[in-house]
Design goal:
homodimer; about 450 residues; mainly alpha; MgtE N-terminal fold; Tetracycline Repressor, domain 2; 3 domains; MgtE_N_sf (chains A, B); transport (chains A, B); membrane (chains A, B); metal ion binding (chains A, B); Magnesium transporter MgtE (chains A, B)
Chain lengths: ~450, ~450
């Protein structure tokens, strides 16, 4: 359980590889979980990783490959022949197999599939590869336990013993009619509790949740977590049973979704981790920074436009970063609440009510902050009353505007079927910076009259 | 599957409640999933929700209660007697029961537990309530299927039929010795495939992952998703089997963790959704805004300190929001990558290497952005070369510093066992704003010599 990749372990392993002590290496990994071996492979030199993959049994290495980081896996697969990859693939469930083959070039894909000995397995993988990314079809596995409604319990148990060997986890047994259409489900428990001569048709549960093969994977995740399902069958438009999705796949979908939202909020355009190359990291980071720079430029121009006020009211210019920062922070808070509400389907009530509530809320927060600001500004920094008042009124106005923008931009994006998470982070801070500064100086002009 | 809470449905329901058509209401909900009924209860008036809860069978309402939003649930439970709550609780699995009782006041907790008829169930719930929040013990359920290693397969199947009725999902059958210590596991499949007269001791799998009852729940989630487990047994320090955690509980833990990180990054101190009261929303939002205001104040003072430069170089002050915004954005990007790396345990390599990489990366990004800035500033806005150079050099320096702060603050917090997600969002933007502005003016002073 508590295996840790220590530097002693890695050193020992390196030495064994250097000395080509194959049996000792095998023994070293004997009781180590494949997920842990995958971590070891991330730590050792690349040549050593290849050596280990070629040395261990494909039963073990196929599992290791599915656990590896995509980059590392691709580099390793580049060093294997199509036949060697096919051997690994033949040990995998169809969903993992399709995911990994899908990462290869079109030509390699064909070669690997042609090298597979089990024709049925190959056909299943080809079918899975044909579904669009991020659909139920791309997520499902072909492995499932299926019985016909006309079978008896005894016959069922006999055949399940055969089918179940290929299915690592039996969540539900799916019942189909003679046209392969899904009609119901059974649990192993139901089968064990039933009498041997009963017909499946008499004992199955006919209410069975299923998703269409073209359903969006995030929607499938929502359905499965809402209804607490551990597996869900996937059907085509004619209700023919095609595959099943299990909850561990959904855990991955949920994680990816959460990671992506988090990254968008932080201004990263693609999934990167800190070990990626500087080029990849730049690709993820630079677009948003250029957007922010462009936005910054607009604020420079706005400030330049009000430059004449500088000689009379220099303090005004000291407050611009404060106003901009508050606008940005308020905007991010509001948009984050909405983005999460949209993700959890928990937004209710009319737009008008929301507008009213957000306005009252930000008025309330704005008042507290303005009082703090005015008293501190006048008492500590000794600004004159009019400047203090200008900053305070601007702060309230900016907070209200920023929270309204933060609230409604994601709602509008969502209505237009654009990922609302795009509206968080740099996008909202940049636009709120600009608007905040503009409003601030307009109010200042009104009150101070420069 | 695709039940939608329509306004027609809610209207029809309201009318039926008004007319006290109890059997029609029951019929209306007959085929509706409890998770959907929970959504309906969120939509209708509160009195109507109470009416529905009191009307439907406790078998159904107990499930509905577990699905409700905590606020709504508490309000409903406030309207039920201890005995009525006990009836609901008696239909629930121990983990859900303990979660819901745990939300009540200490006195209500005692009353409800005393009102439970099933003494064993009550004792189980009391045990679960005794574990600390966010531990494996607080997450687990007492329901599981357990067999002794001395039993035969046939005896096992017979007894499992009894135990399994109480356990909604049988993931694994846990094998214990006569001192109740966990020694291994079995799947239902293994049992079905085995011969009737075989001993459990001969067929069980002795390698079984387990977690200690005091283990942190996020750690349990990591273990279960790393090793692709659908259930994990929980043991005490003597390896005595206490309960089990299933993957659907882990889905909730992962979701909560992701939500909390996201909220911290957005500057929200507690879990709020947009339907919460203005007071709750203020409590979540105001602390970070006050922090940002305080930070803004520091930047006002810094700018004030360099106020003398204003007459000679007014343009400098136009660029402060731009510099501050870039510092904030870069800081958030860097910290988000680290926070995610820490959450996924994927940070590898030495701190020095990371420092070097982050510096090169930000130097590279900074150069591109500075060239863009200088050319735009001089060509479009017509600034003089020295001011352009000052802004450009400052931008590069600020980007490097901001990315280093964004990288190392979360790492340091994590080493000190503080949630690194605290370092994202307003905290990093505010401190980077201040440092960015300070550095900018120091460099300006050096180059322009005011």
């Amino acid at each position: 359980m508590t295996f840790e990749v220590t530097s002693e372990f890695v050193e020992k392993l390196s030495k064994l590889i250097e000395l080509r002590k194959d049996s000792a290496i095998k023994k070293l990994f004997e009781d180590v979980h494949y997920a842990d071996i995958a971590e070891v492979l991330d730590e050792v030199d690349f040549d050593e990783a290849i050596y280990i993959i070629k040395l261990l049994d494909s039963e073990k290495t196929s599992e290791i490959l599915t656990e590896l980081d995509e980059d590392t896996r691709l580099r390793i697969l580049d060093n294997l022949s199509a036949k060697e990859i096919a051997e690994e693939i033949s040990e995998m469930d169809t969903d993992d197999a399709a995911d990994i083959i899908g990462e290869l070039s079109a030509e390699r894909q064909r070669n690997v599939i042609n090298a597979l000995e089990d024709i049925e397995h190959a056909a299943d993988i080809k079918e899975l590869l044909s579904y669009k990314d991020n659909t139920a079809g791309a997520l499902m596995a072909k492995e499932l336990v299926k019985v016909y409604e006309t079978w008896t319990v005894a016959g069922c148990l006999r055949r399940i013993r055969g089918q179940a060997k290929e299915v690592s986890r039996v969540h539900s047994i799916y019942v189909v009619d003679k046209k392969e259409r899904l009609v119901g489900r059974l649990s192993l428990k139901d089968l064990i509790v039933a009498k041997n001569d009963q017909k499946i048709a008499d004992i199955y549960i006919s209410s069975v949740d299923a998703v269409n093969v073209n359903e969006d994977d995030e929607e499938v995740a929502k359905i499965m977590s809402k209804y607490d399902l551990e597996a869900i069958p996937v059907v085509d438009d004619n209700n023919v049973l095609l595959g099943r999705i299990t909850i561990d796949d959904i855990v991955d979908v949920l994680k990816e979704e959460a990671d992506r939202d988090y990254q968008l909020a932080a201004g990263l355009t693609q999934d990167v981790d800190s070990d990626d190359s500087i080029l990849d990291l730049t690709k993820a980071r630079l677009p948003w920074l250029i957007l922010a720079l462009f936005g910054g430029f607009i604020s420079v121009s706005i400030l330049g436009g009000f430059g004449d006020a500088m000689s009379k009211f220099p303090e005004l210019f000291f407050f611009t970063p404060l106003i901009a920062a508050m606008a940005g922070n308020v905007g991010v808070q509001s948009s984050a609440i909405i983005v999460q509400g949209l993700a959890n389907d928990s937004l209710r009530g009319s737009l008008f009510k929301r507008l009213l509530k957000e306005t009252i809320l930000s008025l309330f927060n704005g008042l507290i902050l303005s009082v703090l600001l005015m008293s501190a500004g006048m008492l500590i920094l000794g600004f004159n009353f009019n400047v203090g008042l200008t900053v305070a009124i601007s702060l309230i106005s900016v907070i209200i505007l920023a929270s309204l923008i933060g609230t409604f931009v994601p709602i509008i994006l969502d209505k237009k079927n654009i990922d609302p998470a795009l509206a968080t982070g740099p996008f909202i801070t940049t636009s709120n910076d600009i608007l905040g500064i503009l409003i601030y100086f307009l109010i200042a002009k009104l009150i101070l009259g420069f």
